[in-house]
Amino acid sequence: MKVIKIFIGTLLLIGVYYFSCYFVMKLNVKIPPSLLGLFITLIFAYKVKINVIECASDFLTKNMTLFLIPPCASIVNSLNVLNGIMVQWLFITLLSTLVTMLVSLFVWKKLR
Amino acid sequence: MNINDFLLSGLWMLITLFVYCISVFLNKNIKVFSFFVPVLISAAMIITLIYLTNTNAGKYLYYTKFLNGLINPATIAMAIPLSKQIPIIRKRFKLIFLTVFVGCVSSVSVTAFLCYLFKFPIKTMISMLPKAATMPLAIPVVDLFNGFIAVTILTLAVTGVATRFFGDVLFKFMNKNISTEGRGFIIGLSGHAIGAASCYEKSEVEGAWASLALCLNGIATCILLVGIFMLF
After folding, report:
1. Can you give the pTM of this predicted structure?
2. Measured distance CA(A95)–CA(A88) in Å, rounded
């Protein structure tokens, strides 16, 4: 029974995604369709509770990393992009991470 | 897709599923692997398999496109846990909104400034800007504006691991000057899923706040970047 609920819920979410794709294409704006779909679902989910979507959401969010494996594994094809700038790239990533943490920590502590 | 491709597609998807199960097991049970999220362990294993079987990485992506396609409904599904957090967001709106806003703007602006300083090509810069956003939200934005997804994935991985390290040092130094909620929120905000995973190891409350922060910061970063890219 749970499997059927997950299946139907996933189909509904895929439907929301394609609706968002259509909307983005018609409006001719550069917004990721999944982000628009997230907002549409957020508005609906706050007002109405749909059991099948909740089941599918639980399953999909718990296993989200599984769906990210293919793009992560295919990075070997384009690693040459960082040739010659690897050290700078690492420096930028580490420094901006530290700055982001310190700044947001400061704001959190000030406002709390 | 012919019958041969269909069979290979099924095989690679089964292999990916199997590797994912092993990675989750390693991540939960062996301390060395707990530092990384299952996706990074799985990716390393798949890359090794691709290399050993002499398969092209592009072909692997083609064979697993059904699995990869599920990331879109999964991203949309993030709305459900987020909708359950709305009462908390409304209760502490100012604190949450301003911390996410400042964190998101500082992450994007510092990265952009440093990339400009080192004269990075614009496509590499675009790929690095969503470094604090969660992967399912960062990838579509970078893809939409023709960035390098490989650079984005690597930047996100390093950011996540660095956040765990900096977080440990920073909060040890601050001792008891920061609440559990605050710790979780800051780690989730700058270290996305890798950071949030480390928070869940410490406590459920810290993990929940980290999840909330990673969701909100992912959305905020996407909106900010789409706005910036559409303007310029």
Report:
1. 0.84
2. 10
Q: Which residue of B72, B86, B174 to mutate against A (max A Cβ within 10 Å)?
A: B72
Q: Cα(B180)–Cα(B178) distance, rounded to whole angstroms? A: 7
Mean pLDDT, chain B, whole residue set: 87
Chain A residue numbers with beta carbons less than 8 Å from the beta carbon of B75 are 34-35, 37-38
Contact B200, B169 (CB under 8 A): no
CB neighbours of residue B93 within 10 Å: 10
Q: What is the ipTM of this complex?
A: 0.89
SS3 letters across B2-14: CHHHHHHHHHHHH
Distance from CA of A105 to the nearest CA of B (A): 6
CA–CA dist B200, B208 (Å, integer): 8
Question: B39, B69, B21: which is closest to B196 by C-alpha?
Answer: B39
Q: For residue A112, what pLDDT is reported?
A: 77
Q: Cα dist. A35→A20, A68, B120, B156, B221 in Å?
A: 9, 17, 28, 19, 11
Radius of gyration of chain B (CA): 19
Q: Which residue has the tokens 């909104």?
A: B97
Tokens matching residue B152:
């984005």
User: Tokens at residue A52, please?
Assistant: 């099948």
Mean pLDDT of chain A: 87
- The rounded percent of chain A whose pLDDT value lies above 90 is 35
Nearest CA in chain A to B184: A105
Q: Are A99 and B118 in contact (CB under 8 A)?
A: no
Nearest to A65 by CA among B130, B131, B24: B24
Longest dimension (CA), chain B: 62
